[in-house]
Amino acid sequence: MDAFLVSTAIVALAEMGDKTQLLSLVLAARFRKPWPIVLGILVATLVNHALAGAVGAWVTQMVGPDAMRWILGLSFIAMAVWMLIPDKLDDDGTSQHSRWGVFGTTLIAFFLAEMGDKTQIATVMLAAQYSGAYVWVVAGTTFGMMLANAPVVWLGDKLVKKVPIRMVHLVSAVIFLVLGLLALFAPMLKDLA
What we know:
Elements: H1 2-15, H2 19-31, H3 34-62, H4 65-83, H5 101-114, H6 118-129, H7 134-155, H8 157-162, H9 165-192
Helix pairs in contact: 1-6, 1-7, 2-5, 2-7, 3-5, 3-6, 3-7, 4-6, 4-9, 6-7
Keywords: Membrane, Transmembrane, Transmembrane helix
Protein name: GDT1 family protein
Membrane topology: Multi-pass membrane protein
């Protein structure tokens, strides 16, 4: 259950102000049909994060525990730095896909926008950290994405204007930094105790 709660919190925070959250806002403004947009986000996220979680689980089996500790620790610290770099949406990503309807456009645009995104990388790392809890990690990261994106679809820019995105990014960066430091130094602290 820890894997679910931690995954939900990390991804919900990491998603604030992310390009996929901005994409949610663009899709909501363009189509004004929240249910197919939210369903498209859900399906795209489930598929994307299931693949990312599988990669994380596979990496855990292929790499020894000491190497994995260093990979995870440094990756979480890199995510902390990445959280401090604001995202922007280059274009709405929907014009070439609108022939597929609201759901199809959302599914394709959201899936592609998530490729290599912070939350996808976080899913890989969380699945590696919580080996054996793959389903809980994917469920948590997907729920975190929905917590961050569904309100944007329904409430649009009213919500985005009231959320201090910079503060959310700073809090997220601190959480990733702490996770990274714990991954790197927890075994050493146990030896000292």
